[in-house]
Amino acid sequence: MLTAIRELQIPLLAALLLGGCLAKAWRALRTRSVTAAMVPTGLLPLRVRRPIMVTMFATEFALGLALIATAGRIGAAGPGLPASIVRAGTALFFLVAVGALNETRQRRPDAGCGCFGEFSETPIGWRTIARAGVLCAAAAATIGLPPLRMPSSPTTAELWLATLAFELSLIAFLSPELGEVLVRLGYSEPCELRRVPVGRTLTTLHSSSQWRRYSGQVSAADPADVWREGCWRFVVYPGLARGRPVDIVFAIYLQARRPPIRVAILDADTDEVLGRPELAILSLSRGV
Amino acid sequence: MRHLAEIPRWCDDVTDSTGPGRFARRSLLKAAVLGRRDEPGHPLAATAEDIEAAASTLVYTLTGRILDVSPHILVLRTERGEQRFPLAANAQAWRGGPVAPAALRQGDHAIVRRQLPGGPVVDRIWAQMGRVTGTIIERQGPATLLVDEGPAKGRKIVIIAAEAEGRIQVRFPRLEPGYLIDVIGLKHDGFLQALVPATSQPPYRAGHPPAPPLVSGHVPDPVSGTAVWHEPGEEPEGLLGLAYPALDPETSCERTGSAASACSGEQHAVDPHAAGPGCVRLPYLSVGSMLRLRNDCAERSRLLPVTSCGATARLFCDRCVTCGTSRKGRIADLTMAAFVELGGALEAGCFNATMTIGG
Which single residue of A247, B103, B278, B322 could bond B314 by disulfide (Cβ 3.0 to 4.6 Å)? Predict the structure, then answer.
């Protein structure tokens, strides 16, 4: 049973190392800066920042690949020395990470670890340090293992799966990045942040019942003012009501289907509110 | 780029934002159509008078030109003419660094803080203070930089003072084209003599700030982050307001941004409108929108109008550490008068802030 648990660590460690590399590479491509992709950089003098970050990335990538390459019979042929070296190197890598994270936490409490690129911007806490410690222990546990094989029986396979589920849960619990990933998976831009062309807002307004009701009082083809606050866009038309110049203000909620529309009519000279049907206290971001 | 002829007449011309025109009327129109959040105790409770007062009244701050100064009296030429102010016994002054009030010079432009709201006694004076915030686009020699402050503000020359070189290099290790700079110093004709770093240099190139965390549901209100200040430029010196980093691109900043970047030509100039939302997600607003901004360090808050475009603030993904560590990202770029009015120290460059949107 213990051997099965130890064997599981090798693919898990390789997946985490290579996943971290992919996330960092993605961020480096986006920001066009190696050091920005691998925060925290404030611990290092400027001239050595870039080479150390590149070395760290290369080491992580090489260890991930080497763990896979030496896991089977090829790497473990003979005395199994290459496999042991790679696994001991992985344990050492995570041990150094524990120290570096602890040091960074003390000197730059606002910095994220950058372990998984832009997902790792949460300031370093005990969970991040504990995760590196757990991975260090996992890597140390693999030293001296024989070549990996497929599970020999259904019982062993079940044990593998149970161990995998437990360990993934533990890593998820220790990973502040998980929340960020879950948000991205189910993400839909809030209406306050959605860019909506003015033309579309005007089309929506002009096809609404409120427009049909008040368009007879509008005295100009174009709005006098258009602005936006959060989820609401405001459109002001000049108009005439009972012979008085008025401003007709429409507030259109920025949603695609059946947006709420509010109307108010103000005296253009005195700003007295002449008509304001269905007034309600509304938030800038919530609909009615 | 949109052709000028295609721009509708309702597009915001932010240079007109300080006038009493349509921007100042927007809060009134919004309140007429959506109602006002004026429940007792609500953070956004505001009457029309409040809104009008918010846009015009300075109770702590004065700006003017120094006519005379002694250890006990400061004489300023302000908008109201020549005025005399007694100095508090513990009054502090800044002119390139902390100095005795009597060391200030005649003719200096000064921003002054009263000890009590509306009171006559003055306890802080900042003279000839300036700030440059933007992207380095050219470097000449070891200490002269040309900095692009964005389409709305143009370019400024920064000369790093010899005595401040080490201090600035520590916080801004990359004084190279394409990287960001934010420095405070003494204003001279045509250039800023940089003396104090206003933040630490972000490690990324100016045009590539990190993406902000995604927001599920609605944008949090209130939102926390860093509030900074900017020089008045073409705005009135005593203007109480702020440059907002996320003006609606359909009606506000975008027009200015596109035109300016098309003319710039330099490879290192960055159009902040094209650099993404920055590292804090803020709801789109417009010039004239009202915000309640709270200085978390001084525990003082004010209702302020959005008076200009602060897109350059989006490039800075930094934190303020004036009192504790703020959340990442700049949420407001205040006028000098508003910054002092909220209890900020100009030489610190920022304060930790909480912003409630609405009014």
Answer: B278
